Amino acid sequence: MPAAVDGPPGAGGSAAAGGGGGDRGAEPVRRAVEAVWRIESARIVSTLARYTGDFALAEDVAQEAIAEALASWPRAGIPASPAGWLLTAARRRAVDSFRRRSALDERYALLAGPLVEGEAISGAPAPRNRPEDDLPWDPDRVDDDVLALMFMACHQVLAPEARVALTLRAVGGLSSEEIARAFLVPVPTVQARITRAKKTIAAAKVPFELPPAEERRTRLGGVLSVLYVIFTEGSTATSGDSLLRPDLAHEAIRLARMLAALLPDEPEVHGLLALCELTAARFPARTGPDGEAVLLADQDRRRWDRSAIRRGLAALGRATAAGRGLGPYGLQAAIAGCHSTAPSTAETDWERIVLLYEALGRVAPSPVVELNRAVAVAMANGPQAALAIVDELVATDRLAGSHLLPSVRGELLARLGRTEQARAELELAARQCRNLRERAVLLRKAAALPPA
């Protein structure tokens, strides 16, 4: 008896390369620039941050290089090495900035040294052996600069919402408009968060470097938390008229894969990746033809993404193989794994899920985990035992204002035949729910209850 809609077990709701001259048109170039930026932005920004020692400057000159590419590539064609072109253009912008700061001659010399004297970024097709043809990274290896960028974007000096915005911008390569659309906030709000985050990093003198090994595991929790928040919002949108925001969820998965490549010996990184893959595997079945929410029990499991399930179970296996015991993300992934391998809701191993939620509650206690444990208890042992857990949450007022608590309580009361109370709880949940698709599910349940 899943509570409302399907989602992460512990969640609370929520191109082209190759030269050639001529005018290629603005739209194909825009798509090419977006593709290159999405793939290479983290390495471009992190490389610039290492060269300049100034994260805010690195991000600014990278954005200026993007604008320059959009202006020049339609006239002269897409260069043979688009990422190299962007990096070279951005480095020149950084050189110009240091030139304007005449006291920084030594740093200017360091930056300007690898560049060809007098070379102009004209947008002409890049000939062979130009500096931008030789990337300062191995394209088959994600280096430590990207990891340093992730730790900086998720630094604890930043407010949680600023960490999310900066991670999506600097590491994920999303524009302010894309971030605003994903979280349903105004573009100026996102821009202000990013600007404030960069200023905070500068004021706090956060170095662009990997934290020492002894600090890395502690700081890693903050990085994982940011990726989890991003994925959760994509998996079940907090508000709006869409249940899912797949682009946001898949961006979190991409970043989690990147982190797993950077830190292959950290089990919780693999645990988070497994959780995201296994949850996203159900996306194709979670909405109907008109975008309406489909509950877990009603989903056509033939539509689940079996490739994502295999990837998720493999990642969970890597987390388990570390031999340190599963952490919060690994435990949630194990719960998602139980669902992904069950032929139906009735044939799900609910007893094991109850045990996993009990373990999760000890490792990372929260009222949402306790509420989800109640759902599993209801499936394993009946609604009366689950109602006692839910009523304890009501008594302690630990989920005040959340639609999740009355949603679960309403379903439990309905199963116990207490129809009027169930209807009242489901209608309360609908009033508190900000996502229109979830609200519609709750109202349908209330309306389907028989008269008292």
Describe this structure in words.
The protein is mainly alpha-helical. Among the domains are: 267-348, no CATH class; 360-452, Alpha Horseshoe (Serine Threonine Protein Phosphatase 5, Tetratricopeptide repeat), CATH 1.25.40. Helices cover 65% and strands 0% of the residues. The protein contains 20 helices and no strands. It has helices at residues 26-52, 55-76, 82-100, 105-112, 144-153, 160-171, 176-183, 187-203, 213-235, 246-262, 267-280, 283-286, 306-321, 328-341, 350-363, 367-381, 383-396, 404-415, 419-432, 436-448. α1 (26-52) crosses α5 (144-153). The radius of gyration is 25 Å and the shape is elongated.
Describe this protein with a few key phrases.
65% helix, Serine Threonine Protein Phosphatase 5, Tetratricopeptide repeat, 452 residues, DNA binding, 20 helices, sigma factor, elongated, mainly alpha, coiled coil
User: How would you spell out the order of helices and strands?
Assistant: HHHHHHHHHHHHHHHHHHHH
CATH architecture assignment of one domain: Alpha Horseshoe
Number of helices: 20
Profile the largest sheet: none
State the helical fraction: 55-70%
Reading off the top of the CATH hierarchy, the class of one domain is best stated as Mainly Alpha
Taking pLDDT < 50 over at least 5 consecutive residues as the criterion, the unreliable ranges are 13-22, 115-129, 137-142
Rg from Cα: 25 Å
- Find the structural class using helix and strand composition: mainly alpha
CATH fold-level assignment of one domain: Serine Threonine Protein Phosphatase 5, Tetratricopeptide repeat
The count of strands amounts to 0
Organism: Parafrankia colletiae
GO biological process, one term: DNA-templated transcription initiation
InterPro entries: DUF6596, RNA_pol_sigma70_r2, RNA_pol_sigma70_r4_t2, RNA_pol_sigma_r2, RNA_pol_sigma_r3/r4-like, WH-like_DNA-bd_sf
Keywords: Coiled coil, Sigma factor, Transcription, Transcription regulation
